[in-house]
Amino acid sequence: MSTLPKVAWIGLGIMGSPMSENLVKAGYDVTGHTLEREKLDRLTAAGGTAAASVADAVRDADVIVTMVPASPQVEAVAYGPDGILENARRGALLIDMSSITPQTSVGLAAAAKEKGIRVLDAPVSGGEAGAIEAVLSIMVGGDQADFDEAKPLFEALGKTIVRCGPHGSGQTVKAANQLIVAVNIQACAEAVVFLEKSGVDLAAALDVLGGGLAGSTVLARKKDNFLKRDFTPGFRIDLHHKDMGIVTDAARTVGAALPVGAVVAQLVASLRAQGDGGLDHSALLRAVERLSGARV
């Protein structure tokens, strides 16, 4: 018999599926629920168990992980008679790994406390590749004791695992992460168009840039997307649009100016408005190409 905690996993999307499978590989008993039948079949094929509802998934779980798109989805699975808080056992640990507003995380922690359920907000960075390879960065908000208890589980999912402060802190750091990533992708996209219009060997240029101060994880991860114009979603523009809304709203609340971030947020929004919301966020290149007179 395994001494590892029993895990309920809610949300089996681009990130949630490989992450839950990595827990199965690490020896955890994982019961999952999502709305797509094929995602449930994928989990069972990997050795997990499918549940027909959130309530069924969480009822006997020691740890509950949610990985859904945004705050409304977190609230939908957490609250109500069929939600997590009404059906999880007292003493369970709820780890929300979605990217949502800090305020939503703080509110969830307060509501869960009344039910005897502990909460960590633990959003991640690294995209689909990081989820598959179990090398995600995990930024956590919540009590130290709960973080210490969850650390072995996090270590099956990522490599950089840091408690950033009380409830909501993980989401605040994730918002900052998304700001940096969006601005970085936009800068890379502008450089690609500039290089191509200048007649430079793009592959060679990106190689040498990657080895200098301009190098970044974003450039390393997205270089092939730029070169091949392959915008198969690892992280969709739709989701980055949502995250830029989170960071601009949070910054306004605390009185932080984000002049470059505000411009990039508008560029992300414009790309989405042109029908590219389902593409990878490296498709910001398409927006720069349009502005530069290229036919996309």
TrEMBL record:
Does the keyword Oxidoreductase feature in the UniProt annotation?
yes
Q: Which domain of life is it from?
A: Bacteria
Record-listed E.C. numbers:
1.1.1.60
Keywords, A to Z, come to:
Oxidoreductase
Name under which the protein is recorded: 2-hydroxy-3-oxopropionate reductase
Q: Which organism is it from?
A: Streptomyces albogriseolus
